[in-house]
Design brief:
By secondary structure, this protein is α/β, with parallel strands linked by helices. Helices cover 16% and strands 28% of the residues. The strands form two sheets. An eleven-stranded mixed beta sheet has the order 1-2-3-4-5-7-9-10-11-13-12, with helices on one face. It has a two-stranded parallel sheet with strand order 6-8.
């Protein structure tokens, strides 16, 4: 069933109402409205038509949400489960503080994504900006296109796969070869989400150390041992 709405309170009210009646919902009329479909914990399928604003699908924990259009910043912020699929481009901050679930963006991310990410998967079928995966400690980020500078800066866990070029690596990162598990993982995602790419062109970026800040403190202490009485 479909409900046409035009104001932010109406959109979220319509979603809540339709959730009581059906597990498949369609909402249209978005025009850069913020905080749509936030905090849904029910296992529903929600299709949204139009242009979303900031925090679309934030705190999602159960729904499969598809946005047929472009989105703003912080898509899927702090989500713990479910899935978000965006057919267009979005702003930065997608999947920040994410702990579970999956975000798929068919266009570019105009900024960072996956900062402080602890789990889940982010797939970008396009390009991303600076500081992707900043301080991430878990999960997977898959970038089909190019990335700007400081990719994976100070990451302590998780994996970043990139198919294009990257301007620079962040601190505490290194590039490794893909193993067969990586190849199978990427190809499975690509087939499932209709992404025209192949795992053989990808590089994997992982942390050099799981405790970079502790390592730095130890090195500082070691350099001053000769000064101690």
């Amino acid at each position: 069933m479909e409900e046409k709405v035009s104001k932010t309170p109406d959109i979220n009210r319509a979603i809540a109402l339709q959730m009581k009646q059906s597990k498949k919902i369609k909402i249209s009329g978005l025009k850069s409205h913020d905080a749509i479909a936030v905090g849904i914990d029910a296992e529903i399928e929600l299709t949204v038509e139009g242009e979303a604003g900031d925090y679309f699908g934030a705190l999602n924990s159960g729904a499969i949400v598809k946005l047929n259009g472009n989105g703003g910043r912080f898509v899927g912020d702090s989500m713990t489960g479910g899935g978000i699929i965006v057919t267009g481009f979005i702003g930065g901050g997608a999947g920040d503080y994410m702990k579970g679930g999956i975000i798929v963006v068919k266009g570019n991310v105009k900024g960072a994504c996956g900062r402080m990410m602890a789990g889940g998967v982010i797939i970008v079928d396009g390009n991303v900006g600076d500081n992707v995966g900043l301080n991430m400690c878990g999960g997977d980020i898959i970038v089909i296109g190019d990335a700007a500078g400081a990719i994976g800066n100070y990451m302590t866990g998780g994996r970043i796969y990139i198919g294009g070029e990257h301007a620079s690596l962040g601190l505490n990162t290194t590039i490794t070869d893909l193993d067969m598990q990586d190849v199978n993982l990427l190809d499975t995602y690509f087939n499932h989400y209709g992404i025209s790419s192949h795992s053989t062109i990808f590089k994997k970026i992982v942390p050099t150390s799981a405790t970079p800040f502790s390592d730095e403190l130890e090195n500082v202490d070691d350099s001053h041992k000769g000064d101690r009485l």
